[in-house]
Amino acid sequence: MPEPTKTRILLADDHALVRRGVRLILDSEPDLTVVAEAGDGAEAIEAARTTQPDLAILDIAMPRLTGLQAARELSRTQPDLRILILTMYDNEQYFFEALKAGAAGYVLKSVADRDLVEACRATMRDEPFIYPGAINALIRNYLDRAKDGANLPAKAITDREEEILKLVAEGHTSQEIADLLVISVKTVERHRANLLQKLGLKDRLELTRYAIRAGLIEP
Description:
single chain; alpha/beta; Rossmann fold; Arc Repressor Mutant, subunit A; 6 strands; 14% strand; Response regulator transcription factor; DNA-binding; Sig_transdc_resp-reg_C-effctor; phosphoprotein; transcription regulation
């Protein structure tokens, strides 16, 4: 029998132990192989660019760029790349954000040993992978919207402002943020001032608290 074509996978999680465990699950399957690993969202984007995988599995809570931020960028720059979000958060808001960011599925780390392989295969067949709790959320959301005749609420801040908020909260200076995002320091400062004004916050400490509540960084 011919060797099955393997799905080439990029795995991004800031915990090396989690990556090792997930990699063991994936590499033991005949049709899946991990070709690159990354420890944060920015590394994931770079690794995807250099290795051109078929599928990216991204943890949500990573330093520098979250999995959702990386997913948005990868969807824009590599539209053929399939994306799965791996998370410890059974959270409806994250689930909807993941779909909006271009992910085909959302897998909980607590049941990754059971769901992840099937999620990879479903994604490569162009089928969404939705865990049971999320199906309830989708149905409830649809019914609520149908009842109210309303769309999903818009996000308070733009994707770029979210990137800058996260980096400010992680303690990066304006110069470091400018270098990371390849923009000018003046642009960083303008975004930062807009964030404070939009969110009604006073300083970096309050921005950091907001970033933790929004799930952009871990406390």
